[in-house]
Amino acid sequence: MADAEHREQHNHGSGTFVGGDVHGGLWQVVLPPYGKKTSGNLAPTKRRPERDDEEENDEEENDYEGILESLFVSAWIAASAGLAVVYAVMGWPWTDHEPAPGIAARIGVGLGAFYICLAMAAAFFARIAQVFELWSEQCAITATQSRGRLVARPPASMSRAMAGLTAVAAVTAELLASLYGWSSFGGAVSQRAHLARLNAAANADSARAATKRSKA
């Protein structure tokens, strides 16, 4: 009997025992996992769209990596495309050594550049929404970990403010992305902005709850 009970155990390494198995480190006995909402102590877990393919899930989890790089790239492309639109509208030559372009070239280049400018603007605002969302999350974590309602109020107010900015940026991105709803680009940008808005609202709710809890 003792041998049978021993074989039922699957303990590997040091850590937290769950059902006879070990999951994580010993610190998880007293501290909840980062990013999961447990008894109002931390901000809620980020929402993720349901995917069947594990590879796509991994890509979605990495969507928050390289936000600043994507932000600057999309801003640079949008500014360049916007400048091309100005050149096309004004009829300026593309270089100093070329004559002014014809009407057909100006219309073609102007429309194409305008379309690219709007696409990159949508991507830019979606990334901005993610930046505000992350700020709202950090403020919410600070509020929920604060001891006392008075201490929690300033970061909670900041979390709600960041959630408002997230909503503005996300709605702008979704409106622009709707122009490209026929493509996967439009759907991806719209989904990114939508998730950022939902996560920021959840962060604000978590921070607001921290200001209403009883004093520790």
* Biggest beta sheet summary: 2 strands, antiparallel
Number of strands: 2
Uncertain runs with pLDDT below 50, 5 residues or more?
13-42
User: Roughly how many Å is the radius of gyration?
Assistant: 25 Å
* Secondary-structure element series: HEEHHHHH
Name the shape in a single word.
Answer: elongated
How would you sum up this structure in a few lines?
With 216 residues, the protein is mainly α. Helices cover 65% and strands 3% of the residues.
Structure overview:
The chain is 65% helix and 3% strand. With 216 residues, it is mainly alpha-helical. The chain is elongated, with a radius of gyration of 25 Å. Mean pLDDT is 78; it is low at 13-42.
Show the helix and strand layout.
Blueprint: H1 2-8, E1 16-18, E2 21-23, H2 54-61, H3 67-90, H4 103-145, H5 149-177, H6 184-212
Antiparallel strand pairs: 1-2
Helix pairs in contact: 3-4, 4-5, 4-6, 5-6
